[in-house]
């Protein structure tokens, strides 16, 4: 009888433990009504950048639409790591959201086509492609290849070059030690234009310019200001060589744990934050440029025709290594 009682007590104890464990999966949305789901969003920029403003808007919308049952923690300044770190974090579910761009080309080559300088002549051409059938095709390919879900595309404005000397022509960039992100499409194109590209992590750029390890860098105007690049560079050339995006991306592992209502909240908040951030870029880019000029930045406006002609010599050969069919589809969209 003692043995029977001991066995029954042991079975009751095991059952209690298992029951407790089965109700602890709040990430799936199946927990009690008082459970709060906390999700992390990382980016590499400072709190002064428009990315951070957009991230705060996303947080606000998620928490409002979920009545506080979902909380978004914002981690700026590469505190969750660089772009590659955050991308890999999303793959294993340790990072829930990130603002990332070119690094996705390491997982799915087709997105690298968007990184080709002078692929687009205007913001309108860029919008037509990215927010259309081609953009959705690329997002689907990225998801299949990496388990990273592109919720939407955020505008960053065109990329321009800052440097230690004025740039007025293609001749002025011959041999120029220009920092680029680690994106092959940009490296081969800038090499074709005659520059000497150097890849470098963003958090090393300010010091690299200050110490003359590099002579120039290129980025959208709000990003230049957010990174305080105008403190260590005297000149800005309005080259508009690439119309720029950053994705609001999400771990598909996290997405798969959400219920349908939570997924709808996340996507709706992402779309609202996208409209908000894109509006900020359109409204504030000129204001930010004027502010940097007032602080001493000198601006040149080179004729970019020769820049574009040189850059496009590299396009087709690069596209052959990535996805020539998709490249041709983009060109057809632009005709």
From TrEMBL:
Keywords: Signal, Transport. Residues 1-19 form the signal peptide. GO terms for cellular component: outer membrane-bounded periplasmic space. It comes from the Bacteria. One of its GO terms (biological process) is transmembrane transport. The keyword Protein biosynthesis does not apply. NCBIfam families: dctP, TRAP_S1. Belongs to the bacterial solute-binding protein 7 family. This is TRAP transporter substrate-binding protein.
């Amino acid at each position: 009888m003692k043995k029977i009682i001991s066995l029954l007590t042991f079975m009751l104890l095991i059952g209690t433990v298992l029951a407790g464990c089965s109700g602890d999966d709040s990430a799936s949305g199946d927990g009690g009504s008082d459970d709060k789901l906390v999700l992390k969003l990382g980016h590499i920029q400072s709190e002064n950048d428009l990315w951070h403003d957009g991230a705060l808007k996303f947080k606000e919308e998620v928490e409002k639409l979920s009545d506080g049952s979902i909380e978004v923690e914002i981690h700026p300044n590469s505190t969750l790591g660089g772009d590659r770190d955050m991308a890999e974090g999303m793959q294993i579910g340790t990072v829930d959201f990130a603002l990332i761009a070119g690094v996705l080309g390491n997982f799915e080559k087709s997105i690298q086509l968007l990184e080709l300088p002078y692929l687009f002549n205007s913001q309108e051409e860029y919008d037509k492609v990215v927010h259309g059938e081609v953009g959705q095709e690329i997002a689907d390919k990225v998801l299949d290849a990496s388990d990273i879900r592109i919720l939407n595309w955020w505008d960053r404005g065109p990329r321009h070059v800052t440097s230690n000397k004025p740039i007025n022509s293609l001749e002025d960039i011959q041999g120029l030690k220009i920092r680029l992100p680690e994106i092959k499409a940009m490296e081969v194109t800038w090499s074709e234009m005659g520059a000497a590209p150097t890849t470098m992590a963003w958090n090393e750029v300010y010091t690299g310019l200050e110490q003359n390890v590099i002579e120039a860098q290129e980025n959208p105007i709000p990003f230049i200001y957010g990174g305080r690049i105008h403190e260590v560079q005297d000149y800005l050339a309005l080259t508009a060589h690439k119309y720029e995006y950053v994705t609001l991306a999400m771990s598909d592992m996290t997405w798969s744990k959400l219920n349908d209502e939570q997924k709808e909240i996340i996507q709706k908040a992402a779309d609202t934050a996208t409209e908000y951030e894109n509006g900020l870029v359109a409204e504030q880019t000129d204001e930010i440029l004027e502010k940097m000029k007032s602080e001493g930045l000198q601006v040149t406006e080179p004729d970019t025709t020769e820049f574009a002609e040189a850059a496009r010599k590299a396009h087709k050969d690069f596209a052959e290594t990535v996805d020539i069919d998709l490249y041709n589809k983009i060109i057809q969209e632009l005709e």
